[in-house]
UniProtKB/TrEMBL annotation:
Native source organism of the sequence: Nitrospirillum amazonense
Described purpose of this protein according to its UniProt entry: Catalyzes the dismutation of two molecules of 6,7-dimethyl-8-ribityllumazine, resulting in the formation of riboflavin and 5-amino-6-(D-ribitylamino)uracil.
EC number annotated for this UniProt entry: 2.5.1.9
Name this polypeptide is given: Riboflavin synthase
Domain of life: Bacteria
Domain Lumazine-binding: 1-104, 105-201
GO BP terms in the entry: riboflavin biosynthetic process
Length: 204
């Protein structure tokens, strides 16, 4: 479980395509505190650390690195299939009991990939618009929460299947939003509470 507060932007440094795909990701995390088998959200996708190290040959420049395996099922639901060496990745370690819950509860289970429709300046911030397929748009409400590439964000407005959010300068600078633009795609995880409410309403 995660909060949607990004604590590092890593970078894919190697891709091994075989039965599954193994990614090596460079990070500034203190890997002495990251166990093999630990969960790390990578662009909002909960992935398991299968190997880690500090040598420069794997992570680049002597920086720490970890490896994760991504299945075909995960590729089909996320943007991981487009990752290549050099791709920046939002990283968040899993939530521990007693940690501050500064965002909202994020599970790292991406629901789908959605389109970035438009980006416009809005004061010092930016207003971003996204288009979600109807089966996911039904879970998105104004003033509700979503996770986009793992970033916990508040929905400002909803128009049909499109919704808008505000990205403040800090979020722009400290996450992969600085590399994204209109015409691209992004991972979406809807609020789990909205999913349960919708399911309960269906059973009445």
């Amino acid at each position: 479980m995660f909060t949607g507060l990004i604590t590092d932007v890593g970078q894919v440094t190697a891709v091994e395509r075989r039965g599954d795909t193994r990614f090596t990701i460079a990070t500034g995390f203190d890997l002495d505190t990251v166990a093999i088998g630990a969960s790390i959200a990578c662009n909002g996708v909960c992935l398991t650390v299968v190997e880690k190290g500090h040598d420069g040959g794997q992570g680049g420049g002597g920086q720490g690195w970890f490896k994760v395996d991504v299945s075909a099922e995960t590729h089909s639901k996320t943007t991981t299939g487009t990752w290549q060496a050099g791709t920046p990745v939002n990283l968040e370690r899993s939530l521990r009991l007693g940690d501050e819950l500064g965002g909202h509860l994020v599970y790292g289970h991406v629901d789908g990939v959605i389109d970035i429709v438009d980006v416009q300046p809005d004061g010092d911030s930016q207003r971003w618009w996204f288009d979600a397929p109807p089966h996911l748009a039904r879970f998105i409400a104004a003033k509700g929460s979503v996770a986009l590439d793992g970033v916990s964000l508040t929905v400002n407005s909803v128009e049909g299947t499109r919704f808008g959010i505000n990205i403040i300068p800090h979020t722009q600078e400290k996450t992969t939003f600085q590399h994204l633009k209109a015409g691209g795609v992004i991972n979406l995880e809807v609020d789990m509470l909205a999913r349960y409410v919708a399911r309960l309403a269906e059973t009445k």
